[in-house]
Structure formats: C-alpha cells, structure tokens
Amino acid sequence: MSYASARDRASCQVVKEIVAGERGRDDWEGAAGGGGGLPEGVAARPDPDKVPRNGEDAAEWLLYGAEYHTARYRRDVKARAGADPASLPPLPEPLALSRNDDCIDCLRRAFRHVRSLGFVEMPDYALVEGCLRQFAREAKTTIREIVRPINWNAAPAGGKRRTSPPPALGTGGVAWDLLDEEPDALDDAALADAENDRRSALEAAASQDEAVRSGVSGGGKDPGGPPPAPAAVGPGATGEAADLARLPLRMQFSLAQAEYNASRPGSVPVHLALRDWMKLALPLAHGTWNAAAWERGNHRTGDDGYRQEVYMMMLQRCLRAAEPFDNFSDRRCFYQPEEETEEGEILRPKRRRVGTSSSSSGETANGGDGGGRRNAVVGESPLVVLSRVFFSLRLELDMQGAKSFAPPPALSFR
Hints:
- This protein is mostly helical.
- It has 2 domains: 2-146, no CATH class; 175-401, no CATH class.
- Helices cover 43% and strands 3% of the residues.
- The chain has helices at residues 2-5, 9-20, 25-30, 40-43, 66-80, 101-115, 125-139, 143-146, 188-216, 239-245, 249-262, 270-286, 291-294, 309-322, 382-401; strands at residues 175-178, 339-340, 346-347, 354-357.
- It has a two-stranded antiparallel sheet with strand order 1-4.
- Strand 2 and strand 3 form a beta hairpin.
- Helix 11 (249-262) runs parallel beside helix 14 (309-322), helix 12 runs antiparallel to helix 14 and helix 12 packs across helix 15 (382-401).
- The protein is flat and about 80 Å long.
- The two termini are 36 Å apart.
- Residues 28-37, 40-50, 155-163, 216-230 and 360-378 have low confidence and may be disordered.
C-alpha cells in the first residue's frame, strides 16, 4: 500500500507478481545488488533463501504485518536517496502469523481459486469464506477482526488527515439542465473521485520528498524549515499547461469539452453544445474564483485588486468557444425542430425543457471584489439566463483587463 499511495506502479506490479508466484528467486538472483526488476524492499529481504522459486507464491509476505511493511518501505526510500545504512532504524519483527503454515495455506487456497477465475466466472464464495474461517481458527481470532470495515474518513496513523473531498464548483445558484436529454455519463462524482486521487498522489509525493530530505540531511535529522507543501501541478508543467493543471478537474474537463465542440460546429447539435458550454460558463460568470489556489505564485487573494491572469485566460477561451455557434443565438437552442405529420401538416415547434434555477440575492459572486455582476432571478427564461451569462463574462473580462499586473511573490534565500 505504501508503493500504491506513492503511485509507484512498477514496484506495485512486481510485489503483486511475487505474491502470486509469477516472479520468484530466478528474477531475484538476476537483480544483483537489489537492482534489476525487483524493488529494493524485496531484494534486501533479511533471508534471501526464503524468496520463492519462480512458479511459487509468497503468500506469507502478506502476514508480515503493516508495521513491518511500512517501515521497510520508508527504509527503502531513504536508502535510495543515499542515506547511511547504519543510521537507519532497525525493522520490527514480522508477525508470528507469517510463520504459521496453516494460516498461510488458507490464504494460498483462496488466492489460487480467485486467480483461476475468468472474467465472467462467479467466485465460490463458500470456499473463500471457509478459508477465512479456518484462518481465524488457526490464528485464534475472529472473522470480524480479520475482515475489518475501513473507515475511509478517519485520520491515518501519524496524525495526518486524509485528503478532504474537493469542493464543488460554485455557480452562484444558477443552473442549466436539459431535462429532455440523458444526463452526462461522466458525472461530478467520477470527477470528484479522480480529483481526490490526483490530490492524494501529489500529497504522497510531497510526503516522500519530506522523508527523503529528513533522512539524508544531517544523518537523519530534519534540515529545518517548514515541510514542503503538496505541489499543485506535476513536474515539468510550465506556462499555460501549469495554469490549467491548477484548476479543478471538472473545470478542465468542461473547457476541453467546450473547445472540442467548437472545433466541430457542423456535427455537434447546437443545443448540446450550449449545455456543455454552460458547464464551463456558469462557474466563470456566477461562481467564486479561487485566486489563492488557481492563480500563479500561491500568493494571491480574490480581493487584492490586481489582475487575475488565469481567470482572464479562462474567460477568453470560454467566449471563443461560443463563437462557432454564433453565441448560441440559433432558435434550435431553445426549440425542438419542426415536425411534419403524415397529412403534411407542420406542427408548431415545441420548446425544449430547460431547467434553470438561481438565487435572487443580487450579490456579487467573484471573490467579493465588487465586479458588479448579479445572479439571475428565479423564474427567468433560459434566453434571459444565457444573456446574463454572456454579459457577466464580457463585463468581468473588461474589468480584469483594466487592473494592473500583480507583483511577483516575495523571494527569500537561505
């Protein structure tokens, strides 16, 4: 799990293959000095003779215990960074269960059954349950202790809290939903999960960097200064790519969808293009722009009075994405196509069912900077809501352009 939390996919794959018996001593012997295809935690195992032969599994490794494996992972990280082996703390003793052949055999039988299943085959749950019950008897414990439910919201060991769910993009209470169309297959829940995965990976990378620094500098002592904050973007991202990477995934996806539609105005139905465009436009026009997290430099606030350059870039791209559709002035945005009966009679076009809802508070929405924009009023027609969105986008772009550039963040040299 330590490799997984650090997104070290190559090491995860190797460990899983060793546990399943797809790798073994032949691979270990070919990885001289802990190099080659095996992770350092495996190659530096205290008793190399117990590394299984190719074709054999290593189910007992799972019973070494979380304390052992976590300590081993931390040692490996520091060792790869060049720390003195003598300065590293000793590993804790593996759990006694790892030496219980009957317990290991119970796991092995369950794993072999699962590994033999095809994609559409139903597992033999009675067999798996029987293996767990026998394991519990041999380990002198209970099924409830073995298969313990996980509280995903609890703080992990070490006092660090889990990543909180990303906040939803605000729209100032304004909504635009096509009630006659199927909902978007990629909903907010899927993007929220992806956002959590991304933030967890960045935090894990920052924690690993902190562990390396504290282990290498001063023979294991903390080098001083605050711990590094989780990076907002991945390594190597610069310019506009870095600007976009700081934004929430929902906003990134909405921008990509709107620009994709704009590149194909002849094939994308205009009412669907409007639906996708509003997912991008509403947060920009009526939501709150998080300047501290989304602008450059990590030193900005929403009311500092300076130009928000990333926000301006998003406003410009949003407005450009509407131009190939004539800014959604087409009647088909709001009315379904005319229908002809069998008798040749032309039926009156039906209005599309567009669900609009909004707040009537009349407060400004973009960080409280007095931009002059007001939220749409409950009961307004879709055309009025759309007009207000365009007005807000253009007004905010003009107001941002009239501001001066923000000074760079303060620099300090140690």
